[in-house]
Design a protein that fits this description.
alpha/beta, five-stranded parallel β-sheet
Length: 275
């Protein structure tokens, strides 16, 4: 089956699947009205995109106390909010008694108004945010979108096309961590937002994951560490490095953000980042 035909099937079947899911959720919670609280998430991985969230999602699934939806990235608060809270809670069915949560990196750039809806759902929500050098993150997003996902080499993508993508709000907003932090901390207290760094996944994956587990309320001693592929690379680009012409443009676009972030979050990892 060709990828084009698979995409056609998804587009064709998605509305019917959505209607079925919404109807099933409505019936489930009508019959079990007290189950809503038991199906409310307690933690969210909110990003960032191309910062190791696929790795995080996979590692968390090994822990016996945690319950995550069948697929990563439910996209409820950014794209599927209209489907209703019961539709969202229905993703956590069959996970009663576990610490529930999900990972959707697009949540990092939610507007404050929607973040307030997250808070309304669960004021005690534990949040996890992984950051990466903003220039490297922006490049990785564009390389994935324009080269890897379209099965092209970087050199085959026209320069003007790359520059348009790098300069787009879709890319830059995800690398403006200062705005992301301001928005989330305007709603949630600082102690509920745990920050890690992409670079630490390669250097100290077990301590990083232990810190995340502790933050979301799971016992790290229960993790079957001998079965967890901590060194596995997931959803990674080929990693050929950023061509200098694109690095220079990203440096221009994000230099102000680098200065602001170092003032806001003077952590060693942030201070070590170079544009």
């Amino acid at each position: 089956m060709s990828s084009r035909f698979r995409r056609f099937l998804r587009r064709t079947l998605r509305p019917a699947v959505t209607r079925f899911e919404m109807a099933a959720a409505a019936v489930f919670f009508r019959l079990n009205p007290l189950a809503r609280q038991a199906h409310t998430p307690q933690f969210l991985g909110i990003g960032g995109q191309k910062c190791g969230t696929t790795w995080l999602d996979k590692m968390l699934r090994f822990h016996p106390q945690l319950g995550l939806p069948r697929r990563k990235e439910v996209h409820f608060f950014d794209g599927n909010y209209w489907r209703g809270l019961d539709w969202y809670r229905f993703h956590f069915r069959g996970l009663t008694g576990k610490i529930l949560g999900e990972v959707t990196p697009a949540y990092s750039i939610l507007p404050v108004e929607r973040i307030r809806e997250v808070h309304a759902l669960n004021p005690a929500m534990r949040l996890v945010l992984i950051l990466r050098n903003p220039v490297e993150r922006a490049w990785s997003q564009s390389e994935m979108a324009l080269a890897r996902n379209r099965r092209r080499a970087v050199a085959d993508v026209p320069e003007a096309e790359f520059l348009r993508h790098l300069e787009s709000e879709s890319v830059l907003s995800r690398s403006r961590y200062s705005a992301i932090l301001r928005n989330w901390l305007a709603v949630f207290p600082e102690e509920q937002l745990h920050i890690e760094f992409f670079e630490s996944i390669a250097i100290e994956p077990k301590p990083l994951l232990t810190r995340v587990l502790t933050h979301i309320g799971a016992d790290s001693a229960l993790m079957p560490w001998d079965q967890v592929p901590l060194k596995e690379r997931l959803n990674a680009n080929p990693g050929q490095g950023i061509p200098e012409k694109y690095r220079a443009r990203l440096r221009e676009l994000l230099s102000g953000e680098m200065v602001t972030l170092r003032e806001m979050l003077p952590r060693p990892e942030v201070l070590s980042w170079k544009a």
